[in-house]
Amino acid sequence: MRPSRPVPAHPRSLPCSFPMRRELPPTAGLPLAAADIRKKCLVPFDEGLSAWLGIPLPILVCSGTAALIIALTTLKRRSPQRSRILLPAYTCPLAVLAAHFVPGTEIVPCDTAPNSINLSPEALDSQCDERTLAVVVTHLGGRVADVETAVCIARSRGAAVVEDAAQSMGARSGGQSLGLFSDAGFFSLAAGKGLTTFEGGVLFSRDPELHAELAEDAARILSCSGWKSFLWNARRIAELLLYGFFYRPQRLALIYGDRLRRELDRNDEIAAVGDFFTLDDIPLHKPDAFRLRLAANALRRLPDFLAEGVRQARRRIPVLLRAGAERVLDDFPGDSGVWPFLMVLMPDQAGRDAVLSRLWRQGLGVSKLFVHALPDYSYLAGRMSVSADCPSARDLAGRMFTITNSPWLDDETFARIVEEGLRP
Ligand SMILES: *Cc1c(COP(=O)(O)O)cnc(C)c1O
Question: Per-residue pLDDT averaged across 311-318, rounded?
C-alpha cells in the first residue's frame, strides 16, 4: 500500500471568510505613540512604576530573563549550598535557560495543578527540599497565581520564592502588585507583553536588604563593556522603532503573521510560536535612556489601556463558556489580573486542535501560548533535571489555546472566532 500523504494540521485554504491581510497580534501590546518619542518625560520610568504599583524603586534591566538571572544569582550567594530551582512545568522556556548563567544551579520542572497555572501543592511538597534554592511561581498570561501556598511550602524547607510576573505587570492581589508576595518579583517589557521597550525587565524585592543586594548584583552582571552595551542598545532601539511602525493590523502580517504561517506550513510549531531560544538570545547589559524615556511616556497610557482590557475580557469569557470552552483561566475573588489574552481550555486535545486548525492561520490573534510542557522540548533536554512526571502541565499544553485581548479584536470579529472556531 502506498503511504498516504500526511494531512497538514493547519490547512492552507479554509472554508472560512476572514480577510487575510488584517493581522491581529497574539497579545494586547500597548501600541507605541509617536508622541512618546518626542515628549520629554516628566517622571522617570522607575519612579512612575513605583508610584503606580506601590513597589520599591525597581531595578531596570535588559530583559525579564536577565531579571530572573540576577534574582537567582543573589539567592545563590545567600545560600551557596542549595542548587535546585523549581519551575512550573508549563512556562516560558527562557526561564530554563536562565540557570545557565548562575553556576551551580539546575532547573527542576514541577507539575502544575490540574486545569491551572499554579504549581501543584502535592508536586511541590514532594519536590521541594533542603536542596531547593528557589521556587518560581509564574503569574502566567496576566493571571494571579497562588503564591501563598508556594511560600508556605518553600519556607518550611528554607527555600526562597521568586514571582515570575513577566506577563502580568499591573496585576494585583488584594490591591497589592504581584511580586510583593515573595522574596523577589519581576516583569518583562519584551515585545508583546503590554508595555514594551522591545526587550526589558523590571526587578524588585519588598525586602529592602534583598532589594539592595539585587541592585548590586544587577550593576555587576550588566556591566559588559561600553561598546557591547552600546551596540546592543542601538539594536534594541532600532528594533523598538521598527516594531512601533509595524505594530498595527494593516502591517503586522509583515513582521508576525506571514512568518507564523510559513512555520506552520513547515509543521514547526515551536518556531511558529517563537518558543525556540538559545543563550545568544540573552545578552546582559544595562538598558538605554532613550527607550526608558519612551517607556516612561507610554506608562501614562497603560492603566487605562489595561482597564479597558479587563472590561473586554470580562464580556468575552461567558461567551466562550457558552460556546463550549471548558474553562477560561481566571482569577480568584480579591485578585485582579491583567488580560493580554484569554487562555481557553477545551474539553480535550482533539477539540483544541480542531479550533486551531480553523483559526491559527487566520490572522485573528488565536494561537498557542507555549507548545509543550518543559520536559517535551527536545532542545531543553540537557538543561533540566526531570525528576517527576508532569501530567497536568502536559494536559494544559494539550488543551489550551489563546485568544488575543487586543482592542483591535472587535466584537464582530470575536463573535466570528466563537462561531467558526468553537462550533462542534
Ligand atoms: C517572556 C517571559 C519571560 C522572559 O522575559 P523576557 O523579557 O522575554 O526575557 C519569563 N517568564 C515568562 C512567563 C515569560 O512569559
Answer: 98
Is the residue at 1 inside a domain? Answer: no
Angle between helices 208-221 and 64-78 (to 10 degrees): 120
Rounded distance, CA 405 to CA 417, Å? 13
Backbone angle region of 274, left / alpha / beta, with phi > 0 → left and psi within -120 to 50 → alpha: left
Question: 13 lies in a domain?
Answer: yes
Q: Is 117 in the pocket of ligand 1 (CB under 6 A)?
A: no
Distance between CA atoms of 263 and 205, rounded to whole angstroms? Answer: 40
Q: How many CB atoms lie within 10 A of CB 44?
A: 16
- Ligand 1 centroid vs 300 CA: distance in angstroms? 23
Query: Which of 96, 107, 164, 368 maximizes ligand 1 atoms within 8 Å of its Cβ, making it the mutation to test the pocket?
Result: 164
Cell 482597564, residue? 307
Distance CA 272, CA 266 (A): 9
Q: For the whole model, what pTM was predicted?
A: 0.94
CATH of the domain at 227: 3.40.640.10
Contacts of residue 224, defined as CB under 8 A and 6 or more positions apart, other chains included, come to 283, 284, 285
pLDDT tens by residue, 382-400: 999 988 899 999 999 999 9
Ligand 1 pocket, 178 CB below 6 A? no
Q: Considering the domain boundaries, does residue 321 fall inside one?
A: yes
Domains: count for the chain: 1
Task: Kindly state whether residue 2 falls inside one of the protein's structural domains.
Answer: no
CA angle 301–305–310, rounded 5-degree value: 155
Please tell me the residue having the least CA distance from ligand 1 atom 6: 64
Can you give the residue range of the structural domain that contains 265?
A: 7-424
Q: Which atom of ligand 1 is nearest to the CA of 189?
A: 7
